[in-house]
């Protein structure tokens, strides 16, 4: 791959020349590369799944970039990495779901008012964490939203749970594009 910075020969070329060379602009420079070859085989199921995920992420990033209300685009612009634009930052965020790293239920005694602490992370921002508490017999005892204190998310139980042993706690973190990350523990 060659690159040129507005040379006399390449000027500001972009696009394909014949079916041999591709010119594109990147970081103020003109990049020249060999043209990609057309695919001859049918894509696998895994490749189709990846293509669908990328299509959804691309539509999300385009919607963020072209939205008349540029508030979300401004948030992404504030978190740009080197050689990144709002579109690529939104695309990256949509492709990476949040992760629930830890559920700390040491302070959960089964009494109303007991607290559960959740650590959820995302490459951009976690917008909400929803908590589900199931009894030992798998019945849903309660559900609700945790409150953020900056780094951790805290949930305060509202229902009594007399049988704490075998209780299952599920935390679902959601990011800005709507991706979810899940973690569950059993007490």
Descriptive account of the structure:
By secondary structure, the chain is α+β, with helices and mostly antiparallel strands. The chain folds into three domains: 2-34, no CATH class; 46-95, no CATH class; 99-186, Immunoglobulins (Immunoglobulin-like), CATH 2.60.40.10. 21% of the residues lie in helices and 36% in strands. The chain has helices at 45-66, 71-77, 86-95; strands spanning 2-4, 15-17, 21-26, 29-34, 99-104, 115-121, 126-134, 140-145, 147-148, 152-156, 168-175, 180-186. The strands form three sheets. It has a four-stranded antiparallel sheet with strand order 1-4-3-2, with no helix packed on it. A hairpin with a 3-residue loop joins strand 2 and strand 3. The longest helix has 22 residues, at 45-66. It is elongated. The N and C termini lie far apart (56 Å).
Number of domains: 3
CATH evolutionary superfamily of the largest domain: Immunoglobulins
CATH fold-level name of the largest domain: Immunoglobulin-like
Counting DSSP H or I runs of 4 or more residues, the number of helices is 3
For the largest beta sheet, what order do the strands appear in spatially?
1-4-3-2
CA radius of gyration is 24 Å
Provide the β-strand percentage band: 35-45%
The CATH architecture of the largest domain is Sandwich
Mean pLDDT: 88
- How is the main sheet built? 4 strands, antiparallel
Question: Which consecutive residue ranges, at least 5 long each, have pLDDT under 50?
Answer: none
- The percent of residues in helical segments reads 10-25%
- Strand and helix order: EEEEHHHEEEEEEEE
Shape: elongated
> According to CATH, what is the class of the largest domain?
Mainly Beta
By secondary-structure content and strand pairing, the structural class works out as alpha+beta
The total strand number stands at 12
| Separation, N- and C-terminal Cα atoms | 56 Å
């Amino acid at each position: 791959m060659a690159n040129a910075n507005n040379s006399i020969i390449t000027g500001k070329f972009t696009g394909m020349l014949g079916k041999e060379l591709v010119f594109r602009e990147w970081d103020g420079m003109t990049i020249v590369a060999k043209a990609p070859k057309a695919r001859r085989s049918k894509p696998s199921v895994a490749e189709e799944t990846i293509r669908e995920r990328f299509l959804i992420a691309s539509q999300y990033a385009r919607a963020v970039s072209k939205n008349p209300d540029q508030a979300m685009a401004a948030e992404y612009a504030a978190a740009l990495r080197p050689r990144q634009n709002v579109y690529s930052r939104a695309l990256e965020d949509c492709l990476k779901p949040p992760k629930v790293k830890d559920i700390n239920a040491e302070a959960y005694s089964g009494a109303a008012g007991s607290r559960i602490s959740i650590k959820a992370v995302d490459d951009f921002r976690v917008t909400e964490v929803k908590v589900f508490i199931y009894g030992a017999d798998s019945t849903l005892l309660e559900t609700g939203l945790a409150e953020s204190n900056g780094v951790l998310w805290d949930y305060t139980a509202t229902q009594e749970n007399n049988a704490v042993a075998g209780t299952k706690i599920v935390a679902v973190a959601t990011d800005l594009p709507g991706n979810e990350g899940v973690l569950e523990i059993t007490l």
